User: What shape does this take?
Amino acid sequence: MARQTSPKGGKPEALKMRMENTETIDFEIIELLFFSYRDFVSDPDAILAEIGFGRAHHRVVHFVNRNPGMTVADLLDTLKITKQSLARVLKQLIDSGYIRQIAGPEDRRQRKLYPTKMGRELALALAEPQSRRIERAFDGASPEVREGIKAFLRGMRNRQNAKAD
Assistant: This one.
């Protein structure tokens, strides 16, 4: 949809009616996703803020812990960010002792990333409140409902980014 410009010489009219669902837009689902994400990241955000880190640090710590030995290139591909965006965050995590960067055994230019014990503990501390929140949301749900929600979340991913889980 093209962006509309305001009429010449006048202020745009203030719209006072709320947007309602349409045949193609479900605002309730959109809002539930906004609010659930806000709350899902709130506990880790508070933990990270105490040590001067943010969500980018969380993502790096999470994926390096889930895939020890992944290369910087793999991490860039997973996060879909630029090398420049990753560089500062990764340096802070390495300098703070949460991540180790080791040259590849075959190709010394390759940089493999590993969590340290401290990095593993941080990943677990960040994941525990999120896991509790997920379990509360699933309370009383059948295995079929759980699988349906996983399928929904997989379906939300960009098709070109989704890998077989």
